[in-house]
Structure formats: structure tokens, C-alpha cells
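Listing 4. Sequential folding, example run.
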Amino acid sequence: MGPHPAVADVRRAVREALADVQRDALVLAACSGGADSLALAAALGFVAARMGLRGGLLTVDHRLQAGSAERARTVAEIGSRDLGLDPAEVLTVTVGAAGGPEAAAREARYAALAEAADRLGAGAVLLGHTRDDQAETVLLGLARGSGPRSLSGMAAVTGRYRRPFLGLPRATTVAACAALGLDPWDDPHNDDPRFTRVRVRRRVLPVLEAELGPGVAEALARTANMAREDADALDEWAESAYQNCALSDIGAAGKPVELSVAELETLPDAVRRRVLRRAALAAGAPSGALFATHVLAVDRLVTRWHGQKAVDLPGGLTAVRRYGTLILAISPIA
């Protein structure tokens, strides 16, 4: 008799996600001890040796709850003793306050994962995000009024990070853990309504399922895939257009960027605004502080020109139009 269907599903997903990884490479599973990441670690432990890979585990102790250090050690022990993962390490982090608790914890976690992956020479790091997580991400993007890049959700592959379970519902990881005799840890933060994502998970999605019928999460995840394809295509077009519009050397970061207004005027709105964002970043604007309102203000120098003054941008940057040239540079522009 073969494995339980849920177990077969998670193993298949991990195997497909690692199909292009070089043999003998180290692959690490980021594991919190919850059902999603525990099923991920178990699948990696089964699949790695059969694919000629080495499987390991990283668990992060955020030190935000009593007993977190002991739980992290237990997760590492399960990875080493029961799942055959080596190394199995606990990464202890200090969570700051910038951007709110969710963002601060995420930033600390990814910084620790990146450092460990570099130190251990890992070829890939697996993350346990499921189709349900993807649906939540899309809804959060919709609530913020974000563009297609945000609505595209999480990518299956982002650099060293891979998310094998984006096509699987959370119920599959829960069933896989039960079939394998694994006892996931339920993080109380996952039920804390102070967190926006928890409210989306516990309140918003169930209402949508009840009112619109089953399959909402799957439809949102499918929307994310289509939005990602569109966003990728627009970004590729914008990069080519940026090269065509440039009147200055755009190879040096932080240097003034000059763009041809005549060329910018020929572009569709979605492409032109991507070009302007790309130019602002190249000229020195910090990405985390550059918002759509800033890009739209610069866009008006192209599309609604009536001799207006320069536009101030984050990072001490200024955008100004002069004689058919749009100039973005650190203030003041001579």
C-alpha cells in the first residue's frame, strides 16, 4: 500500500520544487513546528536522499513567547532524530519594532535564514506557505489598493527561497502530519485577532466561502498566478523602455537620471510609471519609502505639464522637467 494521499502530495510537491537543484546540494527547510512547515520538513527528509540531496532544518526562536527556546529545540530535535535532517539548527533572533510586530518578526526571521544559508552553503531554502497563505496575501493586497505586483502574491521561487506548497491547501499539510504521526505546534499568534492576517484567515475568508461558495482560496491563488505573469511581462517591457528613454548613464546607482519626455509620452501608463519608479530608485530613492503617490506626482510632469515646480521624493531626491528632459537627482539639481 502506498503512502496516505496527503503524504504523497507533500512529497511530490517538494520533489518537483527541487527538480533543478544540483545533486549533493544542501537544502534547508524553514520549520516553525506548525503543520505546514512540519509537513515540509518531513517531505524533505524523505525526498532529499532519494534525489541525491542533503536535507537540513532551520527553526527560528523569535523570543516573543514564554517557552519559545524549548519549543525551538524540540523542533530541531524532531528534525534530526525523526526526519533525518542534518544539520538541524535553532536560530535565535531579536525582533525590533519597526513596521509593526508582524513585519519586524518577518524581517528578523528572513535575516537569520539568509545568514544561516550563507554560512552552511545551502543551495535552497524551503518555506511552507500554502495556497491558503497565498489567498490571504492577495486579499491583503486588495485591501491596500495595491497594484498587480502585490496582487501576484508570493512567488514559488524567489532567489534561494522555494515554496513547494503554494498549490496545496492547508488541510493537506494537516492531514499529512496526522498520517505521519507528527504533532504540530499551534502558535497562539495564529489565533490572535490583533494581527491583520489572522483576521483575514479566521473571519474574512470563511465569510467569502460561506457567501460565494467553496473554492474562493483556490480562485484567489489562481488570480495571483495570472497577476504575476502580467506583472512580470510589464516589468520586462518597462526595463526595455527605461533603456530607450535614458539620456544619461544609468549604470551607476545614486547618480542623476535623465529621461526623454518624448519617449516617455509614447508609453502606456502602466509601463511609463514603472519606468519612473525604476528611475527614482536608480537615482537614490529608498524603495521602502517610495510610494505610488510619489510616482504619480512625477508622472504628472510628463502627462500634465504646465510648467510646475520640481517634485520632492524620498531620500532627498528631486524630479524636475527641463526642456523636454525629466531629471531625477539628489537635491539640489544644478
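-- end of first protein; second protein begins --
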Amino acid sequence: MKMKGKSVFVYDVNTPTTITTMLRPRRQEGQSILHEGFTLNPEVSFTEYIDIYGNICQRTIMPVGEVTITTEVDAQVTPTKEIPEQEPAFIPVGDLPDETMHFILPSRYCQSDLHDVNQLALQITQNLTPGYQQVEAIRTWIHQNIKYQYGQTDSSTTAFDVLHRRVGVCRDFTHLAIALCRNLCIPARMTVGYLDKLPEMDLHAWFDVFIGGEWYTFDAVQEKTEGYRIEIAHGRDAADVAMVTQYGNSVLKSLDVYVEMEQEDA
């Protein structure tokens, strides 16, 4: 299936502002990039680098005035990977690959070592087989018990806050899920990108967990994890996958996101 994603950021810049962005898609299994674009208006030069998670990052200085950042991607994608009939099992910490180890540690927005997080994780997963059953129970509990609502959280909101406030958006759902999984020593990471199945189109966040020797996608916003996705970046939490980080005085005036699916010719 062909999937197109487009994001248009419009900033009001008061003083020259350095920014880093994470807006180009990853090249990996499950998504083949057919075309992509990254433009700034007015035109300014930018540099690129790869971060420690393999995400493609851009860096530039926005001039004073209105600045528009447009990013586009056309990709050949496969549906969200299904869970096999033999459910992926928990992997003991001692057997985890080295590159997954930092995904079981507490992070800025995912305080997996707190007592309240531990108590909720045990409450949700009691008597369940370690691995997939625990993760799906966490995902389902969040979907059923956390209210999805804009304007109730901000960039400082953590998993601990969401646990008590019981409200948030995809970023918050994902942070809480990650914290609960890590408390059970299950590696979990935050992933951001495009999803075709959203009632209100926006850039989206979900979580991946390492069970059964592979990474699997889970989405607590959805009733059931499904749909087509284009992954842009992944990391420990929102601090690692912020799509735009600014170091100066500018205001985001608008963000418009578009997703289109194109059925392939038979």
C-alpha cells in the first residue's frame, strides 16, 4: 500500500532562532521511501546529522518573520505488524540484546521506577503471562481509563502526571504505557510518525516493545492496534523524538497534517 504524509509548520519568528528538527522518515523494514521533501520558506541553508537512535535530524537558523517548514513523504508501507499466533514471550534482562538495555531504564518523561507506577503495573498485569499478555493488558487499560482530550497536558507532563490526572493525548498515553512496561523490565520506546486511522489528523505517537526477540507496535489511543504507519523517529520518550526543538524566541502559529492512502494497481 502507498501512503503519503505531509506536515506544514508555520512559525512567527521574533529573533533569529536556531532549531533542530526530526521530520524526515526512517529507512527501515516495513516502509520503503519512494519520495520525500523537506523545504523552508524563506529558503535558508540547513545541515543534517544522525542521532544515537538512527533518526535523521536537521539543523538551521530561522530568520525573523514568518517561516514555513514543509515536509512530505511517499512510502510503500505494510500494515502494522500482527502478533503471531504463538504470543511473543518476555525476555529476561540477562538475555536482552545490548542495544535494548537503555529502553528498560527510567527516562525524563517515563519514571518507571516510581512506587505508584509499580503498583499500577502489578495491578493491571496480575496473573498474566509475562510478555505480550502484559503489554496488551497495559495498552487496553490505558485506552479504557485515560481520557483522550486536547489542552489538558503540555510539554512538561510526565507519565506520573497522566497516571493521576487520567487525561491526555497520544504523547501522554504513550509515556504512561512505556513507564508501565519498563517497570516490568520490558524494553519500550516511543515512536512518532503518521498513522492513517486517526479521527483528528495529527502527527502521532505510539510505543514499541521488545518481546520474543523482536520489536512490536502497540497503540493505546486505538481500540485495537491497527492501520498503516510511516515512522519518522523513535527514542526513549518525547525528549528524544521532538519533531521541532527551538532555541530562541519563536511561536508556532499553525500545524497542518495530511495523510493519504493510495491503493496499488492490480
